Amino acid sequence: MIKLFRLMIIKILTWHPDDYIVTVTMKNNIKNLLNTLPVKNANYVLHKAKSRGFRLNEHPPHKVCEVIFVDYGIVELTVHQEVITLRPGECVLIPSMLEHQFHGAGGKPFDFLNIAFYGNVDSSIACKAIFLNQEERSIMLKMKNEYLTENRFNLELIVIMLNHLLLLLQRRFTESGFEQDTVKITGENNLNHRTAVISRALNFIRNNYMRDITAESVSRHSGVSASYLRNLMQRETGHNFRHHLREIRMETAQHLLRESTDNISDIAAKVGYSSLPHFCEAFKKITGMTPTEFARSLGNPSVKN
């Protein structure tokens, strides 16, 4: 008791007004930082499976923001009459109070991770299909597992992880120049021309991914030079030719791994890879998993409602 009393006396004698100012400043800085974070509270993180023919029509506006991450199948989402196609490994962030609807492409089944939270979605990442890298997919899986545990502080940890994910995405899109105004549009014809070139190039890749195609062969089909196509594709999509070719090949490989009885070597050959190790390396780079691990991906859809 005497020792405690002595400590109190020392604290009083050594107190300085500046100590109070520093403490208040630190508290205000922390408060301002927390106010700038996109996620305030987490509502739920659910892995849902939808059967053939499922359709959600005109989900009414609500106060929570949503993340929809497609784990299997292809989802067609409509937000404000704009159709967004989501393939395995892609997600979309929907701000609050936006009507939306979605269904499996072609009426086929699909499953997805659905996250609802209170906060804000930055315009740089809102309402667009975003392919998640390995680190971002890992955060998704951790959030799903944390929600299912129902351990103490699980929602608080989910808020931290979700803020981490959204800030990573904002950094990626703002620093890559994907959404920056680096190229001035000189007119509607210019925009239409660029869109048509990219569309022709991507269609050619999608129809010929199983062959040994190059940027030069794609550019010839698109009617522009190879250097122009490379620069345009990087500028307009945020990714180069090789990325798109690899992504389309991996998209098909994922479908075959899920739906066919072919072995991994046959699937590698069907999507244009003559080397199995090269295929496995590319597959893991895109999905974050080996072909064998992909079958488990995010695991079975949650039983929890």
Structural summary, described in words:
Strands 1-8-3-6-9 form a 5-stranded antiparallel β-sheet, with helices on one face. About 25% of the residues are buried. It has 11 helices and 9 strands. The longest helix has 22 residues, at about 155-175. The chain folds into 2 domains: about 40-175, Jelly Rolls (Sandwich), CATH 2.60.120; about 190-295, Arc Repressor Mutant, subunit A (Orthogonal Bundle), CATH 1.10.10. α3 packs antiparallel against α4, α5 packs across α7 (about 225-235) and α6 (about 215-220) crosses α7 (about 225-235). A hairpin with a 2-residue loop joins β4 (about 75-80) and β5 (about 80-85). With about 300 residues, it is an alpha+beta fold.
How would you briefly describe this protein structure?
The protein is of the alpha+beta class and 305 residues long. 50% of the residues lie in helices and 19% in strands.
Going by helix content, strand content and strand pairing, the class is alpha+beta
Whole-number radius of gyration? 24 Å
Q: What is the typical, i.e. mean, pLDDT?
A: 80
* Secondary-structure element string: HHEEEEEEEEEHHHHHHHHH
In the CATH scheme, what's the topology name of the largest domain? Jelly Rolls
Backbone shape: globular
| Biggest sheet details | 5 strands, antiparallel
Quantity of strands, as a count: 9
| Portion of residues within helices | 40-55%
Regions with pLDDT < 50 over 5+ consecutive residues? 176-190
Strand neighbour order, sheet with most strands: 1-8-3-6-9
The proportion of residues in beta strands is 15-25%
- CATH top level of the largest domain is Mainly Beta
Termini separation: 54 Å
CATH-level-4 superfamily name of the largest domain:
Regulatory protein AraC
Number of helices: 11
Named CATH architecture of the largest domain: Sandwich
Number of domains: 2
